[in-house]
Amino acid sequence: MTTLAIDIGGTKLAAALIDREMNILDRREMATPASKTQDALQGCLAGLVAPLTTRAQRVAIASTGIIQNGVLSAINPENLGGLAHFPLVEVMARLTALPCIAVNDAQAAAWAEYRSLAAEVSDMVFITVSTGVGGGIVSDGKLLVGTGGLAGHIGHTLADPNGPRCGCGRIGCVEAIASGRGIAAAAKGELAGSDAKTIFARATQGHPQANALKQRSAQTLARLIADIKASTDCQCVVIGGSVGLSEGYIELVSTFLGEEPKTYRTQVLAARHQHNAGLFGAALLAQEAMP
Ligand SMILES: [Zn+2]
Q1: CB-side exposure of 87: number of CA atoms within 13 Å?
Q2: 18 strand-pairing partners
Q3: What spacing in Å lies between the alpha carbon of 60 and ligand 1's midpoint?
Q4: Average pLDDT over residues 34-48
Q5: How far apart are CA 262 and CA 266, in angstroms?
Q6: I need a labelling partner for 26 at 20 to 30 A (CA). Which of 103, 162, 189, 253 fits?
Q7: Distance from the CA of 140 to the center of ligand 1, in angstroms?
Q8: In whole angstroms, how large is the CA radius of gyration of the chain?
Q9: What is the distance in A from the centroid of ligand 1 to the CA of 163?
Q10: Taking the mean position of all CA atoms in its chain, how far away is CA 56?
């Protein structure tokens, strides 16, 4: 059985053919349409999967946003603006004439990371820190999805009641402070207008404000991890994403976590799958749902 795995993100769309042993047989990528309307996304997805569909037996989608009963809705309108209600599974099943499942991208990535951990791990949490902050929770060997698909959206938990407004509408979410977008938004003076990558590069050179912004992100994440440990009693937290996997970031998070009481500490690991975590996780979930 070959799975056509699709990853729908705020900036790019990826599709891959993945076999039973999780080898990628073919992979394609394109930019997410700028207009972010249902018609534009549907058109791009059709073009992306057309050369791959005939070699697949099922479709597995990982997508940003909330996925409930195969329907996508955007939690943060800045990520996928026009997609208030996009019937993802229905559309892709019609386009490909194949059975189809869909799951939130961070939940999918959490499952891929969980399946690559040692067998004795039954409870873990995945956090991706990139443009936004996403997550997925595995409890007692099961991926938490929730009744409405919201489980694991830990980037929208409270970090600072006096913090900036998040794209989701709440004030002071972890995402509004710790994410690449949050880091860039807080930059002032000569760093104003710089992206997180540039700011982190300046931090490495010893720039005081850049360093403070990086520390603020890492400390916010460490506090989130302590909260997660208190609520899930996980055995480890796996961190991914372009900010999360940047040089020295996990070490910094671990240092801040070390300042919390011992009860709230847990092992912090780097994600293994990086860019393909969503694709692998969706493919694994499809394989388990449709053996
Ligand atoms: Zn939020």
Answers
A1: 5
A2: 3, 24
A3: 27
A4: 89
A5: 9
A6: 103
A7: 27
A8: 19
A9: 11
A10: 25
Q: What are phi and psi of 8, to 5 degrees?
A: -105, 110
User: What is the maximum span of the chain, computed from C-alpha positions, in angstroms?
Assistant: 56
Distance 281 CA to ligand 1 centre (A): 24
- Ligand 1 centroid distance, CA of 172 (Å): 7
Instruction: Using the mean position of ligand 1's atoms as its centre, give its distance from the Cα of residue 173 in Å.
Output: 5
pLDDT category at 81 given cuts 50, 70, 90 is low
Overall residue count recorded for the chain in this entry: 291
Query: What crossing angle do the helices spanning 208-232 and 249-257 adopt, rounded to 10°?
Result: 60
CA dihedral 248, 157, 263, 128 (to 10 degrees): -30
pLDDT exceeds cutoff 80 at 107: yes
Q: What is the pLDDT of residue 180?
A: 96
Q: Is the pLDDT of residue 199 over 80?
A: yes
Q: What is the pTM of this model?
A: 0.94
The pLDDT-based confidence of 76 (bands split at 50, 70, 90) is low
The pLDDT tens digits of the residues spanning 125-167 come to: 999 999 899 999 999 999 999 999 999 999 999 999 999 999 8
Residues whose CB is less than 8 angstroms from the CB of residue 143 and which lie 6 or more positions away in sequence, other chains included: 107, 110, 111, 114, 136, 137, 285
Ligand 1 centroid – CA 240 distance (Å): 19
Say how many Å lie between the CA of residue 156 and the centre of ligand 1: 4
Query: 125 with 237: CB under 8 angstroms?
Result: yes
Q: Which amino acid, residue 281?
A: G
Distance (angstroms) between ligand 1 centre and the Cα of 17 equals: 33
Query: Mean of the per-residue pLDDT values for the chain?
Result: 94
Q: Compute the distance from residue 165 Cα to the ligand 1 centre, in Å.
A: 8
